[in-house]
Amino acid sequence: MPEEMAMTQPTNAVTPRSAVGPSLAKLVSHIPAEQHWRRQADALIVIGRQMELMAQEQGRSAQVMLGTLRFSLFRMHQGRIAQLAPHCQSVTVYGEADVAPPDIPGVTFVSVPPGAPMSQEWFLVVDSPGFWGALIAHASQDRADGAARRYLFDGVLTTDERVVSRASLLLSLASGKGATVTAERDAMANQARWGHLAYSLVTHPEAQRLELLGCLVDMADIHALLSVPSFGLDTMGPEAMKVLRRYCGTLGEVLYRAEGTNLVPVAWGNAQRPPSQPISTGAAGHAFTQGSLVLNRLQATDPEQALFNNANSMSAIPLFVSGSPWGVLLVGQPDYDPEKSLTTTATVGIAAMLEQVIEANPSAAIAPVGAPAYTPPPAAPAYTPPPAAPAYTPPPAAPAYTPPPAAPAAPAYMAPPAAPAYTPPSQPSFPSQPAGGVFPSSPASPGSPAAPPMPIMPTAPALPPRPSILSPQNNQTSTFGLPTWMRSQGQGAPGTPAAPPAEGPSVRSWPVLRQRLFSSLVAYDQQAAEQVWSEACAVYSPEQICNELLTPVQIEIGNGWHRGEVSVASEHFSSRFVQSKLLSLFNSSTDHINGPTAIVACAQGELHEIGAIMISLFLRWGGFHVIYLGQNVPNSTIEEMVAQLNPQVLALSAATVAAANGLIAASQIIAQLPSPRPFFVFGGLAFWDREDLRNRVQNGFYFQGDVRQIARIVAEQMNKNA
C-alpha cells in the first residue's frame, strides 16, 4: 500500500467556519510550536496503547477519554478498549456517528456533530490520581502537487496537570455529564510512571520508524536523557547528571553503586570525583539500607554538605535491579522543603528511567572507579607436539558389492481417517461466527453514510490484565510502573482497587479472540498478541486456530489496508506474526515420511509465504510427506528438483501478478516433464479474480477457499491415481 493511504479521509475533512463546539487542540495552543510534532496514525496508536496499559493498572481510578474522528475508525481500538473498560472508572469514546457504535459494557459513546472541531481531533486523555496525561492531535491533509495525498496528525503529548484537568472537564461537559473531581494527585507516582512509559516508547520495535522519541519533546528532561546515542549506563549515567542539573534544577548529583560495604560513585555532576562512603552512613546509606526515599534539609554537620555546598536540601533515591538494591541517586536541591520540591519530583522520574536502563542492560553497567584491576591468568605451558603416528597400513580390499534384492512396491496411499471433532474441555459451546463475513458489520444508524463493516464485540466481560508482579493484589493500590522503593512503601495513587472481572466461556469465543488479536497487531503489541495466541492454544486445536483465528484476522487486516485504515507497517507486522505461528505449527507437526511427497513453494518472484505455509501445514496433517521450499523458487530449478525428489504433488503460490506470470512459465516447464508428472496445484491472491491468468496456466488445478477442503481434494486425487 502506498504511504499516502496511511489514513482515510475523515467525513467533512475541512471544518466549516460556522462549525462550533469544544476543541481540545485549543487547550494545547499555548505549548510552543517546537514541542508539537506531525506523525502518522501508527505513532498515535502505539503511544495510546502504552497509556492504556498504564491506565488499566490504576485500580478503577482512571477516567479514559478517547477520540477517533468517527466511530467507523474505532474498530482498530475495539479489542483493547473492551479489555480496558472493566478496570477503569469510566471509558468514553467520541467521534462522528458515521456508523452505529458497538455495544461494549462500561464504554459510553458520544456523538460529535459533523464538521465540529472534535470530529477532526484524535485524542486520548487519561486522568487518575497516580497517572495522568493527554495525547491530542489534529488531522491535517498532506498535499503534494496541489492534491491531498494522505492524513497526518499534528499533535502534542503532555503531562501538564492543567491541560489534563481542563480536557477532562471539557469532555465531561460535552458528554452531558457534570464535572468530575479527581482525588488528591501523587506527582511523584505520575513522574515515575511517565519515566517507565517513555522508556517503553523509545525501546519499542517501531520507535525509530515512527520517531516516537520526538513525541516526548514536551517532557524536556525525559526527552534529553533518552536522546543519548546508546542506553548503556556508561552513557546514560553521566548524561543523567547533566540532565538533572539543566532541566530539574539540582545543585549537585552523585550516582552510587553498592560494592561490598561501600557505596562507590559511578557518575557525578561536579568536577571532582566524590569519595566512596560506607553503606551505614549518610542519607545515601540510609536510603540504601532502608530501601526508601530520604528527604532531608542540609545541615552544616551533614557529610553531604561538602558535596552540595550551595544546596539547602537533598534527596536520596534507592535504585533496585531485579528487586534487589543496586545503588542510590543522591542530589542536592535549592528548596528548603524537599517534600514540596519540584526538583524532587523530576528526579524521581530520572531515577525510574535509570533503573530500567540498568535492568535492561545489566552487562553494560559500568564498573565503579576503584574496582580491583583485572589480573590475567598465568601463561599456558609451551606446546609440546605428540609423537609421530605410526605409518598408515591400508586395510584389505573389501569384497565386491552385491546389490540387495529389490524392495517391494509401496502400497497405494490411503488418506488417514478423519480426526474426531474437537470438543473444548468442559466448557459450554461458544457462539458460532455469524454469516456474512469475518468481522460482521453493525447495523448503521438511520441516515448515516455507508461505511466499512464494523466488528461486533460480544457483551462478554474482558480478560483480566496480563499477570504482573506489579499488578494490584489483595485489594492494595496499584503499583504498576512505580520504582521498587515506592511499591514497598505502598505509595502511589489512592483509588478503589479493581475487582477482577468474571471470566465466562464467551471470553475465548472466536469473535472475541479475533478482535483482541486484530487490535493487538495493529498496535504492534507483540506481548498482547502472544497472550491471545496462548489462550487460543489452551482451548482449541491447531486446525481450528488456523481457520477461525489466524486466517480471518489476516483477511480483516488486509481489508483494512485496502480501505486505508491499516498502514503498510501494521500489515507487515501482522503478516510476520501470523507467518511465525504457522511455521511453528509446521515445524512441530509430524511429517509422514512414508506418505506421498508434496513439494510446496512460492512461485518465482513471490515473497508472500502465508498461503503456501498454510497449505503445507494442512497437507502434512492430511498424511503427506511435505517439503516446503519457501519464497521465490526459481523456475530454472524445477526440472532438476522434480527429477531428484519425484513428488506426487507440486503446489505453487503467487500473490502478485508478476509472480503469477512466473508461475505460468513454471507450468509450461512442468507440462514438458516426462511422465509420471506430479499433480500440479496452484493458487494465491493473484488468481482470485483474474480468470485470464488462471486460463494461461497449463495442466494445473486451481483451488481457492477453505484450506481444509483443498487438502482433502488433493488427498482424494492421490487415491484415484494410486
TrEMBL record:
GO function terms (MF aspect): cobalamin binding; metal ion binding; methionine synthase activity
Bias (Low complexity) ranges: 429-448
CC per GO annotation: cytosol
Alphabetized Gene3D superfamilies for the sequence: Cobalamin-binding domain, Methionine synthase domain
TM spans (from-to): none
Biased composition (Pro residues): 449-467
Record-annotated B12-binding domain positions: 595-722
Record keywords, A-Z: Cobalt, Metal-binding
Compositionally biased spans, kind Polar residues: 470-489
Coiled coil regions in record: none
One annotated GO biological process: homocysteine metabolic process
One Pfam family in the UniProt entry: B12-binding
InterPro entries: Cbl-bd_cap, Cobalamin-bd, Cobalamin-bd_sf, DICT_dom, Met_Synthase/Corrinoid, Meth_synthase_dom
Alphabetical list of SUPFAM superfamilies matching this protein: Cobalamin (vitamin B12)-binding domain, GAF domain-like
Protein name in the entry: Regulatory protein MerR
Taxonomic lineage from the root: Bacteria, Bacillati, Chloroflexota, Chloroflexia, Chloroflexales
